[in-house]
Amino acid sequence: MSVYSKLENKWNRLWQKAGVYEPLLSLPKGKSKSSVIRKPFYNLMMFPYPSAEGLHIGGVRTFSGVDIFGRFKRMQGLDVFEPIGLDGFGIHSENYALKIKKHPMKLAKVTEKNFYRQLGAIGNGFAWNEHLETYDPEYYKWTQWIFVQMFNRGLAYRKKMAVNWCPSCKTVLADEQVISGECERCIANVVKKDLEQWFFRTTKYAERLLTDLEKIDWPEPIKIAQRNWIGRSEGASIKFSITTSQFSIEVFTTRPDTLFGATYLVLSPEHALLRNNGLGVKNYEEVKKYIEKAKSRSLEDRAEAKEKTGVELSGVYAINPANKEKIPIWVADYVLAGYGTGAIMAVPAHDERDFEFAKKYKLPIRQVIAPKFSEIVNPPRPEKSTIHRKTVHVILRRLTDDKILMLQWKGKVWGDNPPRTFIIGGVEDNEDAVKSAEREIWEETGYKNVRFVRKLNFEVHTEYFAAHKDENRYAEINILYFEVDSDDHGEVSSEEIQKHDPVWVNEKEVASFINVVDGPFIWSWFKNGDKAYTSSGATINSEKFSGTDSETAKWEITKFVGGERKTQFRLRDWLISRQRYWGPPIPMIYCPACAEASAGKENAGWQAVPEEDLPVRLPFVKNYQPKGTGVSPLAAQEKFYKVRCPKCKAWARRETDVSDTFLDSAWYFLRYIDPKNKKEIFSKALAKKWLPVNMYIGGAEHAVLHLLYVRFITKVFKDWGVIDFNEPFKKFRTHGLIIKDGSKMSKSKGNVVSPDFYFKKFGADAMRMYLAFLSPLDQGGDFRDAGISGLTRFLTRAKNISKKLARTLKEKLPEDSEIFLHQSIKKITGDIENLRYNTAISQLMMLLNGLEELSTVPWGAYEIFLKLLAPFAPFLAEESYQSFKKNKSFKKEHSIHLAPWPKFDTKKITAADFDMVIQINGRVRATLKASVGINQAAAEKLARADANVKIYLVGKTPRKIIFISNRLINFVV
RNA sequence: GCCCGAGUGGUGAAAUUGGCAAACACGCACGACUCAAAAUCGUGUGCCUCACGGCUUGUGGGUUCAAGUCCCACCUCGGGCACCA
């Protein structure tokens, strides 16, 4: 047994015995105890799901990191509740059991023991009395209870649809558990499978899940991830009638303003109208084949397909309700079944995906939105009339040197700044664009032998005030490209020469040469165009809506075609069933007799297990391996599934799927406050006292998994009146990931760092400090043990300094040490509050360095030092503290961990002097001691007296003197 | 492709939010103690220069008396989302 473990065991025992870390959970009866006045503080670490392999060092860092905060809050006088337990049910545990060929039920016992042993060694102030495990029937009884409530209150339903299926885990998965087409647990490619499953109506809470994000103190990236996941978008649903049938196709679009540009429709392969050829498609065999093929592709395949594919439905057309045009209908798997109506109107000119598809299948592309610019230098004046003109912008390239011809205008043509533009001009009534371009080139530059190459299939609009005509101009710009082989050109009229000079510009400099607002856009579109323009602008080619702002046109066009304004969410309902063994059985019974009576209704024939019959115990099943047939291993257990219907008593069948592990972890924080309650899920009174959680710390990887599910369950509970708050965690912070040799720790890579060895070798105090000192908590880092010795040295010195303690209690610190002590209290307090443990420890080190320089250390200062150290190094701090306190027997109130946190005295924080920096032209030329609060005149005098400063100032009068109080003075010469 | 986050000594990192860049550590070098080593203690340690001094926060430009910090462009790495109409 090492020296460390001896000390650690001693204190763990004494703390446990005295109940140092047990909060006063229940409401006070009477007012005898001092703890009555302590305010509750719920300090929680994201629910761990350990495997039998045990914790790795990264986990330990987070645990101790959370604990440092908890200890700090406890010393600040709060009644800190820091519970611990484990999330042992679920695929992660079961997969591991499968891998090592052990039964998960037996393995859980081993894991639990090992996990609690490891946690016991890291010196955390856990409330061990309230521990819980999700596979404990006393716990999952209530997980099942939640399911029953969900069912009874219409939030759980059964539905057959294409769901995510992991072929490796042999179960379905929720959308959140499919990461880029791969299973969250095993990285296998997920496929779609038609199965009947249980769902929770998370979508009913989409709006609240989104808006309540504003009310919580969470890291912004996590909020962004949730917002994106919920994916609220506003648009319209629009109906397209079909030539061959009375059906119509409804689409959802966020861009109804582009309706006139919709040149075809696309249905997803799973679309209902395709199921039995209800549309009377002539090539149905071909369509069917395509649908089959699309369904068999994995999600990843579908998403990463390099090229979009599709099949046109022949003989069937839709009518564009805006312009009554007959447009083709396609089936393609780039349209998703699960979003909107599973059908889209395709606007290739203004949607990248449609554009790509239209290019491939040669479908028409029609621009209906033009980018619109307003000149910044001379914007249109609202009081003036506006003249609309069709114009051309000509890009002329000289092939001999690859330069582009541009115009440098003279004088105040349009505004104060002479513009630099392409060759521009208006299109006359009797002209086409090419003709007028040729004319403009000739008139403005004298070039005649130019060759027209192409006209961009893209229009740009710009409005400006034309000063010489005293009117606003609205230009509808066509972009034309010409080439010329030589520099031969004719005379330019003097009239034109007065207006502008032609300038040949290098291709690279074109964008910067132009100084009109639309120029750079036109140039870049010319260079990189031939793509969809997806922003807003002015509506064109849209009959009577042409010319309106596209944002306004959105709702006008929707109204015009009888469409409906609609909000869509990307979020989908939570698929809760799992075809696995290691989870809480879903507490439902299917009765064929009852089903007949209520045929056609939602959940027909399904009864919830009566509450008094809960829990539905998970039986010990020897062959627990997943079957892969779409049912769980429990489906082979007749003794389990054969039951009487709770309603009609006929023979019925119990649901054999289990629920998603994420349900277990979605409510655990509520049970912690009352884990032994047999009558109810938890006491409402206790919930009122302890919840919501004050500080929650966990991994960012759960941004849209656990962290979304908990919020959902919390809102549901609030609606049921079980709790009175909407959000589970007021404050949430992420921790960084500890990696090893540049990659995540994993057994397969063989780079897992086990804490056991290090804790034994260096002790919990040194390890806690080392892990905290590494980097700020929210940052990760590469684990290397090189730096541990620094912390070990520090702790040894911290202990040894007690040898220098003053004889009498009255001795005080010298003044400057006293100031530094108070500065340190302030710094450390603030740093811990913000989880910046690394700088807090650095300050502790400086404080110790300072104390070591004294010949004797006053007891008061040492006590403060120990208290500041206590959250980081709980054992050493307690040991040293107690050896001076000399209590006869250790009691709860004796512990340093319940002693009041040191307070700093604001008056003692500022020193009398500071180092004033003297700069000449921003360069430091001297630093001088000056008294705090010195004014500019005095500072200047002091600075000028310095020899080095004199050298730089001799014979010069400063143009400017910048004086920053209590910091610096800068002479600008 | 889109959205975040980050680039600072040999290493982990710090910098009161625009005010002395590299605090605090690790490592390294030298010294003390020691027969010796470890441990411990002391000194030094961004780069160039014998020095005076100059240069330095991914690259280039800008704003400012003053930029790691603000603005523009670009490069690299990490993370998340990914046909969401």
Description:
With 973 residues, the protein is of the alpha+beta class. Helices cover 32% and strands 23% of the residues. Helix 22 packs across helix 23, helix 25 (815-833) packs antiparallel against helix 26 and helix 26 (837-853) runs antiparallel to helix 27. A hairpin with a 4-residue loop joins strand 5 (156-166) and strand 6 (171-173). The chain binds one RNA strand of 85 nucleotides through helix 7, strand 11, helix 9, strand 15 and helix 10.
Summary tags:
973 residues, alpha+beta, 8-stranded mixed β-sheet, 7-stranded mixed β-sheet, 30 helices, 32% helix, RNA-binding
Compile the SSE list and pairings:
Elements: H1 3-18, E1 39-45, H2 57-75, E2 78-81, E3 85-86, H3 91-99, H4 104-120, E4 132-133, H5 137-152, E5 156-166, E6 171-173, E7 178-179, E8 182-183, E9 191-200, H6 206-211, H7 220-230, E10 233-242, E11 245-253, E12 264-267, H8 284-296, H9 299-304, E13 310-319, E14 326-332, E15 343-346, H10 352-361, E16 369-370, E17 372-374, E18 386-398, E19 403-409, E20 420-421, E21 423-426, H11 433-445, E22 450-466, E23 471-484, H12 494-499, E24 500-505, H13 510-513, H14 519-528, E25 538-539, H15 550-560, E26 564-568, E27 574-575, E28 577-578, E29 588-590, H16 592-597, E30 606-608, H17 638-641, E31 642-644, E32 651-654, E33 658-659, H18 661-664, H19 668-671, H20 684-690, E34 695-699, H21 706-720, E35 732-735, E36 738-740, E37 743-744, H22 755-762, H23 764-773, E38 781-782, H24 788-800, H25 815-833, H26 837-853, H27 859-869, H28 874-885, E39 913-920, E40 923-931, H29 936-945, H30 947-953, E41 960-964, E42 968-972
Parallel strand pairs: 1-2, 1-34, 3-4, 12-14, 17-22, 18-23, 34-35, 36-38, 39-42
Antiparallel strand pairs: 5-6, 5-9, 7-8, 9-27, 10-11, 10-13, 10-26, 12-15, 13-14, 16-25, 18-19, 18-21, 19-20, 19-24, 22-23, 28-33, 29-30, 29-32, 31-32, 36-37, 39-40, 41-42
Helix pairs in contact: 22-23, 23-24, 25-26, 26-27, 27-28
The structure holds one RNA strand of 85 nucleotides.
